[in-house]
Write a structure and sequence with these properties.
The protein is built from 14 helices and 15 strands. By secondary structure, it is an alpha/beta fold. The chain has two domains: 173 residues, Aspartate Aminotransferase, domain 1; 265 residues, Aspartate Aminotransferase, domain 2. The strands form three sheets. A seven-stranded mixed β-sheet has the order 4-10-9-8-7-5-6, with helices on both faces. Helix 3 packs antiparallel against helix 10, helix 11 runs parallel beside helix 13 and helix 12 crosses helix 13. The radius of gyration is 22 Å and the shape is globular. It binds pyridoxal-5'-phosphate (PLP). Pyridoxal-5'-phosphate binds next to helix 5.
Length: 461
């Protein structure tokens, strides 16, 4: 059945959604905006969200890889309510709490690595990545951190300085972060092809960066996403990851991973790190955020105690590790385990990518299909040979998806990648429905049914 229009643009001016937009423009700081088009949501249940006009949309965004357990999962809501009636706030830095101990023990158990670990709590992925910037060089008594082209780690000054994404070009950076090329094999920065390239980017890291730009003995840490999210769902070759880890071991550099997006079941395993044998790859530090508390503000860094214990009261936030987010996180982890959501993510993710690979045969505009679990990137190009990014077309397709009742975002350093990341509870039927809408949106945009004017007011990501 052909997907029907859910949002009628002709009625936009009189809609509640538009009213929200107008007031937003007037009162809300635009430095917060990554607005894609006229959508606004004020209710959600499972894999569906609703706008203020009562229109319902299937959600393929999880609100930026946050709603892994879906919107308003009953058990999360119950945990929040129960905790809200018991204790809403208590500064965790001042007084310990048994729930935080319970959550910490659980995180230590589910994250890779069998040696002694500890847990630090924060409020957002940014403050957790900030810890890496601030504390690792102090601990190691070395001044450099290496992070990668296309990486997104956050917006506090430390995490911003670790970020090498187009959104982090406006402000000055903190010193001490050296960018290295990430292995984007679809758009190789060296113009080579894997595996014939012989891991040129890893050789460049070891032979050039660690010798001529920041000597290995001055490097505290190599910090990376095991799959770059905002960079465009870039999956590095496994042997590149292992090689980077070996470089770390060789030069006594810490290896830390940002699993803010990829963590908590998203990629079909607890963590993207779990795709590697634990003997080959145990990170010294792992950063978590976003889905950890199903949308309540909570982040964590899990890893070697030396860094996290560096000095008493050296890195804390009043609201970090607050009781309600912590209760939500305990419920979230239980749900992922009990409902076997990582397995569902694996199965549904395969379904999505197989379908896109089919569509790729029909639609030239689909340049590349990649991903793990429910973490898929679909890259659109105007020409498969030149790989000219189809950024405007991507934006239009997302707009059309929304009109047809599917909410989804884009990522990528060229803004031309569908960020296909539904809640992990999604069923086969719902997945099929979303895929139908996506195919229709591709057809409609290629047939010129979405004008430039519809998207021109929005900058997107
Ligand atoms: C990989 C990664 N790290 C860190 C962050 C920053 O998290 P937050 O926006 O919660 O501060 C993000 C956000 O998109 C992210 O994708």
């Amino acid at each position: 059945m052909k997907p029907k229009l859910v949002f009628d643009l002709d009625k936009l001016a009189s809609s509640q959604t538009f009213k929200v937009y107008k007031e937003d423009l007037e009162h809300i700081a635009s430095s917060l905006y990554v607005r894609l088009h006229y959508m606004s949501f004020d209710a959600g249940k499972g894999v569906f969200i609703k706008d203020p006009d009562g229109n319902e949309y299937l959600d393929f965004s999880s609100s930026g890889c946050v709603a892994n357990t879906g919107y308003c999962h009953l058990k999360v809501v119950e945990a929040i309510k129960k905790q809200a009636e018991k204790l809403t706030c208590q500064c965790f830095s001042l007084v310990p709490n048994k729930m935080n101990n319970e959550l910490a023990k659980k995180l230590i158990q589910i994250t890779p690595g069998e040696s002694k670990k500890k847990v630090w709590f924060g409020c957002t992925g940014s403050d957790a990545n900030d810890l890496i910037y601030k504390m690792v060089p102090e601990y190691k008594k070395r001044k450099w951190i290496i992070s990668f082209s296309g990486a997104y780690h956050g917006q506090t000054m430390g995490s911003y300085s670790l970020t090498w994404h187009q959104c982090a070009t406006l402000f000055s950076r903190c010193p001490g972060v050296m960018p290295a090329p990430y292995p984007n094999c679809y758009r190789c920065p060296f113009g080579l092809e894997y595996p014939k390239c012989n891991l040129c980017c890893a050789n460049y890291l070891e032979e050039h960066i660690l010798k001529n730009l920041c000597p290995a003995e001055d490097v505290a840490c190599i910090h990376l996403e095991l799959i770059q999210g905002d960079g465009g769902h870039i999956i590095p070759p496994d042997d590149w990851v292992i090689r980077v880890k070996r470089i770390c071991e060789k030069y006594d550099i810490l290896f830390s991973v940002d699993e803010v997006r990829t963590g908590v079941g998203r990629t079909g395993k607890w963590f993207a790190t779990n795709y590697f044998d634990k003997w080959e790859l145990t990170p010294d530090l792992m950063v978590l955020g976003k889905p950890l508390a199903s949308g309540l503000p909570l982040s964590a860094v899990i890893g070697i105690p030396g860094v996290l214990d560096f000095a008493t009261a050296s890195n804390l936030y009043t609201l970090a590790g607050s009781p309600i987010p912590v209760a939500a996180a305990i419920a979230t982890i239980d749900i992922i385990e009990q409902e076997d959501l990582a397995k569902n993510a694996y199965i549904m993710g395969e379904l999505i990518r197989n379908r896109f690979k089919e569509l790729q045969k029909e639609y030239e505009i689909i340049g590349d299909v990649r991903g793990r679990g429910l973490f898929s990137g679909i890259e659109f190009v105007r020409d498969r040979k030149t790989k000219e990014p189809a950024d405007k077309e991507t934006h239009k397709m997302l707009f059309r998806c929304w009109q047809l009742g599917l909410n989804m975002m884009n990522v990528g350093t060229h803004s031309n990648v569908f960020d296909v990341t539904p809640p992990l509870i999604i069923t086969r039927e719902q997945t099929e429905k979303g895929l139908q809408i996506i195919e229709q949106s591709i057809k409609d945009v290629l047939a010129g049914k979405v004008s430039d004017a519809t998207i021109e007011k929005f900058a997107g990501w």
